[in-house]
Specification:
single chain; alpha/beta; six-stranded mixed beta sheet; 7 helices; binds beta-D-glucopyranose
Length: 243
Amino acid sequence: MEILGIDVGGSGIKGAVVNVETGTLITEKHRIPTPQGAKPTDVANVIAQLVEHFNWKGKVGCGFPAIISHGVALSSGNIDKSWRGINVEDIFHQHTGLQFHVGNDADAAGLAEVTFGAGKGVEGLVLMITIGTGLGSGLFYNGSLVPNLELGTIPYKKYKCIEHWAADSARKRDELSYPEWGKRFNKFLKIVNALTSPDVIILGGGASKKMDRYKDQITIKTPVIPAQFQNNAGIVGAALIAK
Ligand code: BGC
């Protein structure tokens, strides 16, 4: 079965058609920059452009950077506040005429990894962390998702959310080297490790490709491994949500 997977991120909205039996992309990825401010109508218009790009008429799965409960966004970390309370599945349906299944973006990425990637067959607790504009988290117990865990929103020192200090966007903003940023990220890992006691932590998002540059800063005992799908986990997982 083929499903269009779309990953809505803080800087880009990416999609590809995914074979959900194998987890492979069967088209090239297409990326459109996230509109400034990421307001609902603007994002929905980009979603419609992606659907048009692929000339897609079937089901669509979408990873979205917020708490998603029964299709409704309940938070708005790095997107416009007006998303709160909006049924994301409905607004995307209205702009495309297609059936959408929407879930949290990190939950989606984790789903790809426990189904086909680095977390496949792992017994016990797998924690997926996505490193990007924010810090996303997805928790899986024996392959089953515990949805909407929001570890990036833990308060830390003067920061309302630790992701404002330890995400990849903070590395860029504060002009940190990878080892400097790695120390911050390790602090985040220590906190989430203490809170969830996972058997393995999988890192996804852009920075997971650069793990060699900060892996020496990681001091927790729990194995920390890069996502097998790297940056494509979000797209593959998004399609799996709609399976
Ligand atoms: C949001 C999460 C999301 C993460 C990664 C955070 O700001 O609170 O829901 O998973 O960013 O996009």
